[in-house]
## 1
Amino acid sequence: MQFVVAVVLATVLCGGCSKTSGERVVRIGAASDLAKAFTELGKEFETRTGIRPEFTFGSSGLLSKQIAQGAPYFLFAAANKAFVDKVIEAGVCDGKTARTYGRGRVVVWTAGGTPAPKQLSELTEPRFKRIALANPDHAPYGVAGKQALEKSGLWAQLESRIVLAENVQATMLYARDGNADAAIVALSLAVVSDGGAYLPIDQFLHDPLDQQLVVCGKGAEADAARKFAELVASAEGRELMTRYGFVVPP
């Protein structure tokens, strides 16, 4: 774990070095379920502003810990509210800028050629020997997936089959690469997957995944982060987030 954190921090710190060439960047730490949506939105942002978003996607819990310890991200987009609250409480992010940008949905995803279960209880079938789940210790989608299995009365039966991944994006890779027979992931990743099938999990089986973002730090990069947050909240940003499976606030 220490190695992973060190690599991520090194990547972030090196990202700031790109500004020495005159290139304008804004460093953003974002939950893994945003990888596809924010990458697309980032291209539009760069076209409009000339500022390149430099994303690090990971689990919200690990990112919040890094930010609280001084990692130089100027926008933090988490997969829930709790981890945004933590960086605000640490005094490194501006609570006045915190906003909900969407509610995430959870699905059971299977790679191409493997039919998805028609209902959650089918995960107990022998064909699902390994089920990938983001680590609930620091990944909101892992928490939601575990809650859904518990409320469905399936956790006790399936716990021995669960394979934990670092974040929800890595969870999906487990299934895609054949290291798991199914993965509990974000709808935002499943809707743009190359093949595969998915079963939406009833949202009443887990706590709401109300996802928030917040601006951190000061100066030019913080100003750029505010502009990116405004794009996320714009009509175009809301349409894009909806297309990726998020339920956007009214």
## 2
Amino acid sequence: MRWLSGAGAFAVVAGMPGAPAATAAADGRVRVAAHRGGAALWPENSLLAHRNALGLGVDFLETDVHLTSDGEVVVLHDATLDRTTTGRGPVGAVTLADLAGVKLRGADGAPTDERLPRLAELLDLVRPSRAQLLLEIKVDAARRRYAGIEEKVLALVKDRGLLGRTPFMGFQADTVRRVRELEPGAATVLLVARSRLERQRVEPREAVRWTAEAGAGTLGIQHTALDTGVIDAARKAGVAVAAWTVNEEQDMRRVIGLGADILISDRPDVALRVLGR
């Protein structure tokens, strides 16, 4: 059974009851996700970036969330503030009030006028659009799961009626399982880096098995590890495939040719052009 939601689609995966996948629609069109809102174009994970990406006509925004010490869900990739903001230290060690004067940095490292958004603000931006939100739930600076982050994220998403438009992603199978435990109907994505495959000395198609074991409907795999073996195994398992982070045109064409369902890129403008959109 397939059903459309906004510009993208989910599929209820055969053989995996209740595990929706973030995948291409019945028309088979490859979907484009703006990685961190389009990190090569604007300050990453800023509201400006996500707003501009929506203006390009992307199918998905892709973002990351952390938890402050006072339990606020904020939008940021790193577990520390140092690289992408004017702040310092772990996100989990500061309060929302501490972040009031923090500004985001651009790709060149220079401070901008953009501030660090709350997830609530990003959801409010997404809601009136037709786009969906690939939402990665991060771990803290010690690589531990934030206590209660899945509950808080789900509550914010559900309060805005966006559960059907928000696949939840994580590199940790426990994160994926916790989301599914709290909300069995949620679409989930297991992220797998090439380094994990190399460290465990397994073929890339093994990532499909990990995805199924975690109960996720979609595999989000580093594009350099994507090959025909992954695609074939995913199709047999009823698992969708998202490839990250694909920024060069030749790599985009390779990923599209292999049959990925979602292309995640810091250059969504180029991805849309390659796809003729």
## 3
Amino acid sequence: MKVECCWIGKTQEPYLEEGLRTYEKRLKHYLPFEVVLISDIRSAGKCLPEEVKRQEGERILSRLKPEDYLVLLDEKGQSFPSVQFARWMDQRMQMTHKRLIFQVGGAFGFSEEVYKRANAKLSLSEMTFSHQMVRLFFLEQLYRAMTILRNEPYHNE
């Protein structure tokens, strides 16, 4: 199964981009992995939040296939301690889906259509993070899960 992390728009901060490249490189040692950038809405500043979500939602949904397993990173999602998330990942990787897609929303979140299509929702914390920061935090947790599954010394309890 291929794992993809998708997000809307380019990462703005160079320090975040550097961290993302580091974890992307590390993750490729464990599984078929790709970061997918979905172009942002050019006129987003002139649109109402609902319209931005609708347009971003169309872009998210247009790249999905019926056999994809879509996981939204969402503040209303289920949260896990790192070891439990590793087990959750292991279970998902045993499924017959061709792609496991983790989707980070834009600044306003997801459209209703994207929520309806999602197979699962995950939350990183009860705190709210910017959609830019979530990218790095999630890739680190994904890497941590892979090291836990292989009993490698990255994670300390």
## 4
Amino acid sequence: MPVVKFIKEKVEVEVAPGENVRTAAQRAGIEVHVGIRRWLNCRGLGLCAGCRVLIRQGGENVSPQGLWERFNILRHPMACFHRIGYEKEFRLACLTKVFGDVDVETQPDFNWHGEKFWR
């Protein structure tokens, strides 16, 4: 069975193939939503972009980013700022299905400075 490793929390969770990152995090007691989205979120429908994560390793073991996910990331200004420099790694936990071992960073920081922002 695939294993999702949450880097900041130092927790590993076994998941069924096809399970999404948000569900795995909830089962492990890990909060993926940021700020007020902890209480006001879309409950996994991919609308609020509050469950932002970075797939640090194993990007080939997750579902490809679909049109719905891309649209909802781009329509939220805060999600767009988080995404700068991490276009391939930045995902919504509720829409990212796991099919193999992955390393996930929850609640990524803004990339306001550094080479990735200004390129």
